[in-house]
Every structure is written in structure tokens, then in C-alpha cells.
């Protein structure tokens, strides 16, 4: 046996999943208070506890406005949970951006090589949802949708070969807009409304085997005056492209899509025809119940007799190991 | 900074072989470090040092859950210890030897730094390393190499 064997055993044991302890901050604080009582040391303990534990235990707690909010955000975002496809999530850091506090929160998380997601829940009224960045290039920019008490999960791409990542949640740069009350009236800037965001970073462990999503519902044969002309289905990651070949009839064409699976919301669909310029991108909605989530991409009418090929490319933001995604694309004509 | 806390927890696990005790050890060490905070230049190194000394003092007093045995059985089934056996063998080392092994081969600290953390001389670290590796049946030529 060699020293390298010993190193390997130590690393393997130490770097297995460690039990997360979100209460460590409070527990060490209690420990210090007990010791202080015993030692009868006076003065300034609360502030000092916050400083030390902020530095050591709470990611991003050096940001003063965030300190008091971490405990409440922890309560709203569970320490562990299991996704419907069986994927285990473990929270590795938490923070918050409160309506009355700072506009940004920054936390540093260790990188174990497992995929990371960010989670957010929001209370109140908000039109400035946090954008998320780690320094890794992402397109489109990552950001939460509107304010919801239902947990939103986003993939978190991280810089390659890094041992830790600094995650910034920023509500200060969400863009701007104005509303025109009437024709010719002034365009009034939309007032910023800020809710209370609880935010966390989760590490997830891919399922041991691929977990295929349930089959998708058939696309509607008729849809708001459009008629289904052709359709294709597939399963990511095996099937990454679809191709529709058509001969023009002089009628307009349109493309629509639905996806299924826990990571369906991370799909980007790019369609190109060779007739129009750059490809068009769209996300891929899920359709579990209710009316069809229509989000058509329309193409100009193809001249009668002219052949056209529509190429569809599928990509997914973030990791999808053993978490396949079903897709179904339809080509409609008027 | 939670990365450092997590790393220290893992070091604690290698020392104690038990995540709960490792958590206790980490919390006790952080609490102790708090009282010395104004004098601390290198926080991580300081807390690691407190962890190691706290661990060895616990072990001396009461935390003898895994009793060390002087030697492994004379007639092992195989020349090389399987991973599980090696892990258990590390757990059977006396506290100070176990600390030396963890600091040198997990934390990758040089002999002088381990000596500083344990509050002993470099000669003691070398001899403790040699004894521990011998008990773990690590190749003796490599044991000698590690004396540097």
C-alpha cells in the first residue's frame, strides 16, 4: 500500500456528502453565549458574534443588510428536498434580498463538481426580480420570473475548474419601462416595487439511471385557425434536432412546441428556415393541464411549389445528467 | 466563507470518524476561536489548530469511542488493505497519530506546519508519522521518503 492509497481513502471519505447544518450559525452563537456567561465577560458580545460568525459561517454575511435575513430565508427554502423525478437537492447556502434592505446579495459557495441550482421564493409585490450571475458566461442572462411564493429553480452555471463560486443576486439592474396612459400622453416610468426574496443555492445529485418523463399530450390538431401540418417528437439528450421539409402552398406557416420533464423550463428551441435571417429562439412550455400554452413562431408564407426546410435545434441551460426532457414540435399552416 | 467551514468539518470528520462529533468539534473550536479573535492573524489556520488540540484533549478525556490498538493483526488476509479496512485502521490510531496523518495526507501540510499546529517539534511529527504509517502498513520506502 502506498501513501497515495492513504490520500485517496482520506479524500474519498472526507469528500462524501457532509450533513448540512443550517443552524450552525445559531448553535455556535449559543455556545459562545454560554461560555460568556460562564466567564462573565461583559460587553458588546452580540455585535462581535455577528462579526465572527458572519465572516466564518454565513456566506455573504459580510454584506451588512443581509445578516438579519438569513434565518428567515432558510425557513422558506428547505434544507433538502426531492424533485418529482427523484433528484435529491441539498441546500449549501442561503441569503435574502428584502424590500427594505440592500439591492444585492452576494454569497460564496464551494464547488464539489455536482450541478448547482439557485432557488428563490418571493413575498409581497415585486417587479424587480433578482438576476443571478457567477461570472460564468450564460445566455440568456439568468433571472427569476415574477414574485411568487412557489419556489423557482434556475440552473447555475459556474466558472470551469473553480473551487468556489461567488453568486450575485442583483435586483438593481432589471431594466426599465414606461407606461403611456393614453394616446399622446406622457410615458410614465414604471415604479419599482420590491418584494422580499429568499434565495438559496442547492447542489443536486443526478439520479443513478435516466428518469424518463411521462409521455406528452398530443399537440392540438387545430389551434386558433391553424391546422397541424406535421409534428415531431423526441427525447433530450439523444434527440437534439428536428427537421421539417415542406413544399409551399402560398399559406402562412407557424411553429409551436411543448416539453415535459423537471428541467423542461430550461430548454431553448432555435428555429431556422434558410429563408429568413437569423434563427428565432424561444423557450419550451410544459402542458400538463388547461388550454394549450400557445406560443407560436410564425414564418412568412412560402411561395407555392417552393421547397423549404425548417431546422429546429434544442439546447438546455445547465446540467441534465440522467434527467431527460421530452419535446414535441408542431408545424401549423393557415 | 462557508467553504472554509465545510472544509474544517471534513477535517473534523477524518479526525473523529463521525459527522456528529465532527460538528460538535467544529462548533466548539469556532466558539473558542471567537474569544481569541482579536489576536488571530490567519483565521482558518487558527481554527484548525484549535480543532486538533480540542480533538486530542477530548480523546484523552472521554471520547474513546474507537479504542486504538497497538498493532494490526499479524497475519493480514492480503498485502494491501482494502479501502474500508484502511479507513478503520486510521480510526484505530491514537489521537495524535491520527491527527498527524490527517494534517499531512489530507490537508497536505508540511512537517513544520503540522508541528506548529500540534505544538511539538518536527522530530515528533516525523516519528509519529512513521509509527502511524507503519501501523497502516504503508510501504516502508515511502515512509522513509516522508521523513523529509
Automatic annotation (TrEMBL), chain A:
Regions of compositional bias (Basic and acidic residues) in chain numbering: 1-15
List the keywords (alphabetical).
Membrane, Transmembrane, Transmembrane helix
**UniProt-annotated stretches for the region Disordered:** 1-35
- Residues that span the membrane, as ranges: 41-62
The name of this protein is Uncharacterized protein
What is the protein's species of origin? Nonomuraea glycinis
Q: What is the lineage of its organism?
A: Bacteria, Bacillati, Actinomycetota, Actinomycetes, Streptosporangiales
Amino acid at each position: 500500500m502506498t501513501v497515495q492509497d492513504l490520500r485517496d481513502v482520506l479524500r474519498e471519505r472526507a469528500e462524501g456528502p457532509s450533513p448540512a447544518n443550517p443552524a450552525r450559525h445559531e448553535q455556535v452563537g449559543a455556545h459562545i453565549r454560554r461560555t460568556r456567561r460562564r466567564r462573565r465577560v461583559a460587553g458588546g458580545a452580540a455585535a462581535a458574534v455577528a462579526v465572527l460568525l458572519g465572516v466564518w459561517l454565513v456566506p455573504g454575511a459580510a454584506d451588512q443588510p443581509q445578516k438579519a435575513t438569513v434565518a428567515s430565508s432558510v425557513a422558506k427554502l428547505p434544507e433538502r428536498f426531492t424533485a418529482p423525478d427523484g433528484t435529491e437537492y441539498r441546500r449549501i447556502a442561503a441569503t435574502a434580498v428584502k424590500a427594505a434592505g440592500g439591492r444585492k446579495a452576494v454569497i460564496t459557495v464551494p464547488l464539489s463538481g455536482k450541478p448547482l441550482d439557485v432557488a428563490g421564493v418571493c413575498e409581497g409585490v415585486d417587479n424587480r426580480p433578482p438576476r443571478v450571475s457567477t461570472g460564468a458566461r450564460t445566455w440568456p442572462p439568468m433571472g427569476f420570473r415574477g414574485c411568487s411564493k412557489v419556489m423557482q429553480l434556475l440552473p447555475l452555471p459556474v466558472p470551469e475548474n473553480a473551487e468556489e463560486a461567488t453568486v450575485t443576486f442583483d435586483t438593481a439592474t432589471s431594466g426599465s419601462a414606461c407606461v403611456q396612459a393614453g394616446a399622446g400622453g406622457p410615458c410614465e416610468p414604471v415604479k419599482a416595487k420590491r418584494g422580499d426574496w429568499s434565495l438559496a443555492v442547492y447542489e443536486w445529485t443526478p439520479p443513478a439511471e435516466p428518469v424518463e418523463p411521462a409521455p406528452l399530450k398530443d399537440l392540438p390538431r387545430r389551434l386558433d385557425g391553424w391546422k397541424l401540418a406535421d409534428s415531431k417528437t423526441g427525447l433530450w439528450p439523444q434527440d437534439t434536432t428536428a427537421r421539417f421539409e415542406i413544399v409551399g402552398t402560398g399559406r402562412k406557416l407557424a411553429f409551436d412546441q411543448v416539453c415535459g420533464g423537471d428541467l423542461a423550463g430550461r430548454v431553448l428551441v432555435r428555429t431556422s428556415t434558410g429563408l429568413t435571417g437569423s434563427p428565432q429562439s424561444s423557450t419550451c412550455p410544459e402542458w400538463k393541464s388547461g388550454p394549450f400554452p400557445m406560443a407560436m413562431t410564425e414564418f412568412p408564407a412560402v411561395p407555392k411549389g417552393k421547397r423549404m426546410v425548417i431546422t429546429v435545434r434544442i439546447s438546455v441551460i445547465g446540467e441534465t445528467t440522467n434527467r431527460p426532457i421530452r419535446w414535441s414540435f408542431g408545424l401549423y399552416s393557415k | 466563507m462557508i467553504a472554509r467551514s465545510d472544509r474544517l468539518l471534513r477535517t473534523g470528520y477524518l479526525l473523529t470518524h463521525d459527522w456528529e462529533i465532527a460538528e460538535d468539534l467544529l462548533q466548539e473550536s469556532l466558539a473558542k476561536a471567537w474569544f481569541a479573535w482579536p489576536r488571530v492573524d490567519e483565521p482558518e489556520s487558527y481554527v484548525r489548530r484549535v480543532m486538533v488540540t480540542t480533538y486530542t484533549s477530548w480523546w484523552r478525556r472521554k471520547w474513546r469511542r474507537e479504542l486504538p490498538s497497538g498493532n494490526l493483526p499479524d497475519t493480514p488476509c492480503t498485502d494491501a488493505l482494502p479501502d474500508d479496512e484502511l479507513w478503520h485502521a486510521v480510526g484505530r490510531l491514537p489521537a495524535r497519530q491520527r491527527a498527524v496523518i490527517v494534517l499531512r495526507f489530507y490537508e497536505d501540510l508540511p512537517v513544520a506546519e503540522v508541528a506548529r499546529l500540534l505544538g511539538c517539534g518536527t522530530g515528533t511529527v516525523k516519528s509519529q508519522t512513521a509509527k502511524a504509517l507503519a501501523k497502516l502498513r504503508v510501504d516502508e520506502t515511502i515512509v522513509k521518503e516522508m521523513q523529509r
